[in-house]
Amino acid sequence: MDSRVHAFLSVDKSSALDAARRWDARRADADALPPLAGLPVAIKDIICSQGLPTTCGSRILEGWRSPYDATVITRLREAGAIVIGKTNLDEFAMGSSTENSAFGPTRNPWDLARVPGGSSGGSAAAVSADMVPLALGTDTGGSVRLPAAFTGIVGLKPTYSRVSRYGLVAFASSLDQIGPLARTVADAALLLQVIAGRDPRDSTSADLPVPDYSASLPDGVKGMKIGIPREAIGAGLQREVNDAVLAAARVLEQAGASLIEVSLPTIEYAVPTYYILAPSEASANLARYDGVKYGLRVRTPDIHAMYARTRGEGFGTEVKRRIMLGTYALSAGFYEGFFLKAQQVRTLVRKDFTVAFGSVDLVLMPVAPTVAFKLGEKAHDPLQMYLTDIYTIPVNLAGLPGISVPCGSADGLPIGLQLIGKPFDEATVLRAAHTYEQSTEWHKARPQLT
Q1: Which of 375, 439, 359 is nearest to 407 (CA)?
Q2: From the candidates 143, 205, 214, 280, which is the catalytic residue?
Q3: Is there a catalytic annotation at residue 15?
Q4: Are 35 and 190 in contact, with CB atoms under 8 Å apart?
């Protein structure tokens, strides 16, 4: 199907088949098998994997192969998973549609004329089209949850530092987090179980026990308090999205949860705050791509011209835009008014969630204001593209866990429900999402393409 969807940038066919044969042999011998034995997993092409290209969807890293595996890849292999290939993404994970890839856009399996969301659009499309049962994406401002919502699957952003970032090519280091994409909540829980936990190679990873996520899924939501932010419902939402999210809240209420109105007044400032902080970190992180050590080098007799031409030809328009935004915000005379102020607003966003979680166990809101939009529809209007992430960005700014689970449809396209939890309380997020999923039929829907 990939000739139509373009979810993959590379596929490791021979190694995948060899690994499958080995697991078949172990199964035939009745050996004890690890939890993901023989399951193919697709990997967003911003996560380093030895033996396969890691391009980050950029010409500047075209053909580059990592000499090592990211920690999540190592853990997948130890759990028996077969890394089947690397998936398409917005260049360096900067985008909401997977149209910014240097290697062409990915298409939504539900409607090939529409985007799958971004930046993990390739991973989401691969799961949605049943090319793989499991995939990994990364979420810096919504890049797991948004494509999950747009393609009708489950996408989980863990708490910041719950999953090691060692081997993840950095976009914005204080926001990036690797997360699972799957067909069901139970599958997402299983994948998170494998990749979560302390990693001594990542100093930001949390040294906290990892609970058994699958064991608590059947516990239900009876007695659970779920907050609905007044700022996230109504104005600015596509009518069908608004109705589907409220209907999902009522399903959870019927399952035993209490619905409580809460307030997150800083939501309206989340997007401008993010688009100062994330580009600022990207400006620093992407300075390493200079044509000297690895990746693209445009050869010229003058080293300064080599720097300029390598970066000019290697980076795409959106990446250049964010580097310039970030460099400006960090420059002398503007740092206090932009970057420092954005950090202060980020603290307020986190405080709003802390206050809300003083009275509720979860927060419920949409994933996106609309269903998937058409390819090219927002490509020339960056502000409208950025506003697609208005409901996902606050979760990253606060470092919280959040999940997208299918909850409806409009114009034949999926709608996603977002459930947000307290720090390191992925178990409650997954439990509520599983309860909703098992109470409805939305997760069983498949795109006509399949």
Answers
A1: 439
A2: 143
A3: no
A4: yes
Q: Which two tokens stand for residue 189?
A: 């829980």
Q: State both tokens at 59.
A: 């010409």
Tens-place pLDDT, residues 256-315:
999 999 999 999 999 999 999 999 999 999 999 999 988 999 999 999 999 999 999 999
Domain ranges of the chain: 2-268+344-444
CA-CA distance, 100 to 79, in Å (whole number)? 33
HSE at residue 281, side-chain half, CA atoms within 13 A, is 18
Side-chain-side CA neighbours of residue 183 (13 Å): 15
| pTM (whole model) above 0.85 | yes
293 is catalytic: no
Which residue in 97, 119, 120, 161 is the catalytic one? 119
pLDDT single digits (tens) 15-41: 999 999 999 999 888 778 999 999 999
Look up 173 and say whether it is catalytic.
no
What architecture is domain 2-268+344-444?
Alpha-Beta Complex (3.90)
Select from 33, 49, 40, 48 the least CA-distant residue to 17: 40
